Amino acid sequence: MGKSKFGLALVLVVLALNACGKKDSNATGAAAPAASGNAIEFVTTQDSKPLVINAALFDTPAAKEFLATGKNPYVGNAEAIAKGKKVFQLYSCTQCHGPEAKGQVGPGLIGPTFKYPKDATNKGMFETIWHGTNGGMGAKGVGLMDTTDPKNGITPDETLKVIAWIRSMGSITGNE
To answer: In terms of CB atoms within 10 Å, which of 58, 62, 90, 132 comes out highest?
Structure first.
């Protein structure tokens, strides 16, 4: 009887350790949100279907605040705005949206009118940048931009900084 209890305990420990190394992911390269239950719910710009983003990607205080509230704490932060401009340029966003995000081949991003009205909010613009659009812009989020390289793409923190830079170019803060 003692051997069977030890064997059962050993099996349970092995199963538990094995489960610790696995990630819960789906076809979009995203995993389930944190179990805390206080995360905002994302939807795709294409069809408003649920967009599940791994909560572990929200790994900075600002990103965690955004995940909990939908408010971008970087709006108005000069350092974050400067970094957001660099990321905007690095990922060639200027090629479609212009050097000041006022539009070029792609639509203007500074408002007050938007191709996707949800982009007037920071949550909506985050969803659009992260997962792409119907109009030709591919997903930019980590693991979605290049599905062959799960580390390629813009992190949630970088996305928030890009949004802060875009907001600095117009009169809409998106936190209203």
So the answer is: 58
